[in-house]
Amino acid sequence: MNNIKNVIFPETLKDAVSALKKKKSFFMSSSTFSFKSVPEGTENIVLAKKLPLRYVKKDPKNLLIGALTTFDDLENNPLCRSLFSGILSFSASRCSSQLIRNMATVGGNIAHPNAFNLLPVVLTALGASVKVALRTGSKTVPVRDFYSSKFKCGTEAIITEIQAPLSLAKDDFYFEKVSKIRSSWDSYITVAFRSRLRNGRLEDLKLAFGAITAFPYVNEALEKELLGAELTPALIKSVSAKYGEAVLAFHPASRINAYRAELAANLTAFYLKGLTEKV
Ligand SMILES: Cc1cc2nc3c(=O)[nH]c(=O)nc-3n(C[C@H](O)[C@H](O)[C@H](O)COP(=O)(O)OP(=O)(O)OC[C@H]3O[C@@H](n4cnc5c(N)ncnc54)[C@H](O)[C@@H]3O)c2cc1C
Predict the structure, then answer these.
(1) Separation of 104 CA from ligand 1 center, angstroms?
(2) Predicted TM-score (pTM) above 0.90
(3) What is the CATH number of domain 172-278?
(4) Which of 93, 98, 262, 276 is the most buried (most CB within 10 A)?
(5) Which atom of ligand 1 is nearest to the CA of 71?
């Protein structure tokens, strides 16, 4: 049972972090996800609404996205539409309904590992980092280390910003979300890919697969092996088969996962073949 006694609207990050120091406090952004899962015994709700964390801008090295930026903001922001092949804008447009996109925030989407959250896979392809405010100061960690860092998001840690390196802004990016049954959350896969091809050879590669496990699936060893390789039809066939097999191995007995595995292989082959045709 919750017996909410206070609802606090801090206007600065410092005040928000202090408010979380109170026992039984819980941080909420737009509450699209947390409205039904406020932890048992919560007495103080710290609402993000007035924090100055809704922005998209550039510094010399990164695209900076404030944690309160909504999916609708991402979809319509000119920087998100133009940089990184527009992957931020396009992927945001594939999230649920307009009602949810108007509210759902970037911070709330990545705060906890959840297979169906769309941004972790996109941020993985972007090579992005996550900036977090803690009682002891702030920390910035690459998204691949974010969940293993075990931040207690919402009770001790506040995500403040995403940083996507502009050095990759002109690479080729691709996002797709494919669903067998449109109305079901059980049957879809998301992919977010990044690459750079020079003289027919791979100079950069990141292939991230979402909605399979709580964390996006990547195979860094295979990506490394492929750097410098020429994308021949035989190589594309063997690489896409490997990704299909890897996805299948997560839930070998599941029919839904067999569908995802087939898609993982087909989308990989489609993307890599498309790269060779662009040259
Ligand atoms: C009908 C429906 C459809 C949906 N469809 C999709 C979909 O297609 N794709 C998808 O990815 N998601 C989907 N979602 C999930 C949800 O909307 C998103 O995860 C959203 O981005 C959460 O943001 P929020 O601001 O509402 O977070 P909240 O609900 O406010 O918070 C969620 C959790 O994150 C924590 N939190 C929030 N902000 C921060 C922060 N800045 N720092 C630290 N912790 C924080 C909270 O404490 C809480 O534990 C859907 C949800 C609903 C209800």
Answers:
(1) 6
(2) yes
(3) 3.30.390.50
(4) 93
(5) 21
